[in-house]
Amino acid sequence: xxxxxxxxxxxxxxxxxxxxxxxxxxxxxxxxxxxxxxxxxxxxxxxxxxxxxxxxxxxxxxxxxxxxxxxxxxxxxxxxxxxxxxxxxxxxxxxxxxxxxxxxxxxxx
Length: 109
Known about the structure:
Layout: H1 2-12, H2 21-30, H3 36-39, H4 49-60, H5 70-80, H6 86-108
């Protein structure tokens, strides 16, 4: 799953002008070209879909470039009446680390 999400983040990393590979797709498609990330989009395996959705929601409410806290996770899971397994939590943390590491690397450039 981390390979798919790495690809997902990479094509969405903004350039200095705010555009990204992902946001450029309509421009290329209008010219009859199909970008690789549109022809072969990253697919999150169904077995991980629930964790991916949790991460997207938690990430959208992130206050700063810090790891999503356990208290934020607990509040979210309480509100949504979700019961994550330890494995789910480990995967959620791995996604969070991956996202922040990619963003930090991008910001260094």
